[in-house]
Amino acid sequence: MSLTFDNTRSRRAANWHTAEYGFWMLPIVAYFVFPENLALLSQIAITALFAVSLDLILGYAGIVSLGHAAFFGVGAYAAGLLAQAGWGDPILGLACAGVVAGLVGWITSFLVLRGTDLTRLMVTMGVASMLYVSANKLTGITGGLDGMQGVDMKPLFGQFAFDLYGKTAYIYCVAVLFILFWLARRIVHSPFGLSLQGIRQNVFRMPALGTPVNARLIAVYTLGAVYAGIAGGLLTQTTQFVSIDVLSFSRSAELLLILVLGGTGSLYGGILGAAIFMTMHNYLSDIDPQYWQFWLGLLLIFVVLFARGGIMGALRTVAKRLA
């Protein structure tokens, strides 16, 4: 009876709700309402996809990471190197970025899964630091601190060039975000996704149910790396430049803050957190360029104290009270 109830609840959760359709109408509205801010909106979409990638491994599988920028940076450099070599097709570049980042994620997953959360934090930070130093030393390939230049992207599908106004880039980023979000949504509501939640809640009980814990964690860690790599590839293609900052610790730390702000264990939490964080970053840095981080930190403290589960947790609480 319990298994039947869980399957029924999972099928209900997998169904799209009216609010979700309205949510995905917002990017269309933003395209027409904010035509002069399409570059910022593209960055929000890229950061949202990056946040979704971390939510898959942290919010659903419980794998703590402070070096997730490693896969973001690997994907960014992979797409940039491919374009420099004359293969500037955007779709091919995203595929390459995802495959290379996924391979790095699969290799490092065997190190990350050894030990407790503190060990995983140290290992993920170590991997990201090693890649950052390597990118800094290999100036002939990555450009070092000067960044990778000469990234020439071809028109999307051979028809839509990346214009100065950012229209093509915005539509491209939102389309990729929606497709990968839809896929991630299907995954987290599948038996595979439910087993991940079981592992996060009680990792010692799941083997007794016949769940291959290590195999599940390796799979989702690799999947999260693929998503992060594709997000990095999007950044390279839309800016046509790769900075060494894509591998920095600050990018990983900001991503974790974004996920805490939006709410872990909810794919929409990462998207909302990215939208609010990037918007406030842009707005506060214009008002107070020197101390904008103070106000952002104040917002994070407020959310942690009064909105359990982040913004998504607060929205769920309000929805339950209204219902």
How would you briefly describe this protein structure?
The protein is an all-alpha fold and 323 residues long. It contains 15 helices and no strands.
Question: Could you explain the architecture of this structure?
Answer:
The model is unreliable at 1-5 (pLDDT under 50). This protein starts with a helix and ends with a helix. The chain has helices spanning 2-14, 18-23, 26-33, 38-60, 69-84, 90-112, 117-137, 139-142, 167-188, 191-201, 213-239, 249-262, 267-287, 292-306, 310-322. The relative contact order is 0.17. With 323 residues, the protein is mostly helical. The chain has one domain (2-247). The chain is built from 15 helices and no strands.
How many domains, in number, for the residues?
1
**What value does the average pLDDT take?**
87
Helix- and strand-based class? mainly alpha
Largest sheet entry: none
Provide the β-strand percentage band.
Answer: under 5%
Distance between the termini: 27 Å
Topology as a string of helices (H) and strands (E) = HHHHHHHHHHHHHHH
| Rg computed from alpha carbons, rounded to a whole number of angstroms | 20 Å
Shape: globular
- Number of discrete helical segments: 15
Uncertain residue segments = 1-5
How many strand segments? 0
The helix content is: over 70%
